[in-house]
Protein: citrate synthase (unknown stereospecificity)
Organism: mine drainage metagenome
Amino acid sequence: MAEKETVTLTDNSTGRTYEFPLLSGTIGPKVIDIRSLYAETGHFTYDPGFTSTGSCASQITYIDGDEGVLLHRGYPIDALAEHSDYLEVCYLLLNGELPNAKQKKDFENIISHHNMVHEQLATFYRGFRRDAHPMAVMCGVVGALSAFYHDSLDINDPKHRLIASHRLISKIPTLAAWAYKYSMGQPFIYPKNELSYAENFLHMMFATPCEDYKVNPVLARAMDRILILHADHEQNASTSTVRLSGSSGANPFACIAAGIASLWGPAHGGANEAVLNMLAQIGSKDRIPEFIARAKDKNDPFRLMGFGHRVYKNYDPRAQVMRKTCHEVLDELGVRDEPLLELAMELERIALEDPYFVEKKLYPNVDFYSGIIFRAMGIPVSMFTVLFAVARTVGWVAQWNEMIADPHQKIGRPRQLFTGETRRSFVPLHQRG
Ligand code: SDX
């Protein structure tokens, strides 16, 4: 039996010393197992934002922020983006291995036969104003799925977990496309099973009943690649939200709706929408220095959207693939001189040379380019984070399944450092100042 590694903690307030196990994974930082810390020391840890805290053991995605590495079940993201397709990556994330030809065909067949939603759900949209933010609609309609699938809500039944997982991955593009159609006042377009996942999504987004709509294969491939790049990303804010929701035993549809709500934030998945809004605000290259200065100013809440990352202190490997895809799409659409891309490229050049961004290792992240690609495809800014949610649903579902199956997992219930008032006597109203 290998010698157990430990970490020693000395509590100078009592002079007592404690030992805690130091656990190793297959790669990446070791973790100090502090599950007995409170029982042994009477102290909590304090780590707002969980920058130094591992919430779980996972085998799905590994990120090395310093090296700019992203692996899904061991496969580098650039290899998957180049040689795989989104449904194959979905299978990999869910099952741990790339599918063989039969497994791939069976999985594609399953997913393509769950892409319709209950017709009653279509009427749910009509309760929203047409100008409702599509992410607000998605929070509502995805949560509402739990009202339709009473046959797959028992999270302790592996069969229920499997069918719910397939339903979520299959239906999310339909619900997303319908959120767009509803905002445009256009009729909903039903999925077509002969189309690929990405083709089907683009078809439901842009087809109309009036004429046949042929999906541009270059755009379909670009969309498929973008879905791969956003599929999963370890224990980010929205994935942690899904895990925490699921730890209480909430049904998977409610958990994914919670993940969508968390992703909406501009510091997280809402950044792609925020990038476009920021580029529009900058307006021209000559104003870039003004905004770079604001981004550095501690008294100015302005952040350079699309730059920086909690984990990556190197170039986000997804951003590199996204940059290549961005140029492919703009060449295909003949919008190479798109002013916004020129502005974005100049902003990237300046930021990568600026000492502030260099020393703080604030590189462009995945959201920096996705917004420009989506805009070139004719997707409105308000739909950008919805597309992120479509792609990330498989990651949330895979992480949720892993959490449910983990024997060490229990309901998440963090503690706190209390800094408020200590006990005091009630003051009747007539005695208050
Ligand atoms: C995603 O977690 C994930 O994996 C998320 C994601 C996924 O796939 O799930 O990768 C998707 O959310 C990508 C990130 C998209 N967000 C944005 O592009 C918004 C702009 N970025 C920042 O809000 C920020 O970089 C965060 C929120 C992404 C990270 O914030 P942190 O963890 O606070 O960043 P940090 O600790 O590394 O910051 C170091 C310093 C800080 O200054 P000091 O306190 O040291 O003086 O850099 C500053 C920050 O204030 N800083 C920025 C900046 N990002 C960080 N300054 C200017 N502009 C920025 N964009």
Notes: The longest strand covers residues 16-23. The CA atoms of residues 187 and 274 lie 28 Å apart. Residues 77-410 form a domain with the Citrate Synthase; domain 1 fold (CATH 1.10.580.10). The longest helix spans residues 158-184.
